[in-house]
């Protein structure tokens, strides 16, 4: 299996490039919001104590689109690593 785009048909390359562009636009327009949501979730840690991780999972599961939830998850993980 080749991952070289030059070996893929034109239509498949175009579809991959369109998806990459869509994801970049989503990332660029939602980065600030994702950082804010991540900080909000992380800020609840001391209040929710032992139930915090379960609560964060349910909050992330309710977020849409999934790519945005992944951005928030990454921010929460970054904040946890920095503490």
Task: Describe this entry's structure for a reader.
- It is a single chain.
- This protein has helices at residues 10-43, 45-48, 52-62, 66-82.
- The relative contact order is 0.13.
- The N and C termini lie far apart (42 Å).
- It has 83 residues and is mostly helical.
- Helix 1 (10-43) crosses helix 4 (66-82).
- The chain has a domain at 34-83.
Number of helical segments?
Answer: 4
Mean pLDDT: 94
N/C terminus separation: 42 Å
DSSP strand (E) fraction? Answer: under 5%
* Shape designation: elongated
- Order of helical and strand elements: HHHH
Q: Please identify the structural class as seen in this structure.
A: mainly alpha
The radius of gyration is 17 Å
The low-confidence runs, each spanning 5 or more residues with pLDDT under 50, are none
| Count of distinct strands | 0
């Amino acid at each position: 299996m080749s991952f070289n785009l030059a070996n893929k048909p034109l239509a498949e390359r175009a579809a991959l490039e369109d998806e990459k562009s869509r994801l970049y636009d989503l990332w660029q327009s939602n980065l600030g919001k994702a950082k804010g949501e991540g900080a909000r979730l992380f800020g609840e840690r001391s209040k929710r104590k032992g139930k915090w991780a379960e609560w964060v999972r349910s909050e992330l599961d309710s977020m849409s689109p999934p790519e945005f939830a992944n951005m928030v998850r990454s921010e929460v993980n970054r904040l946890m690593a920095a503490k």
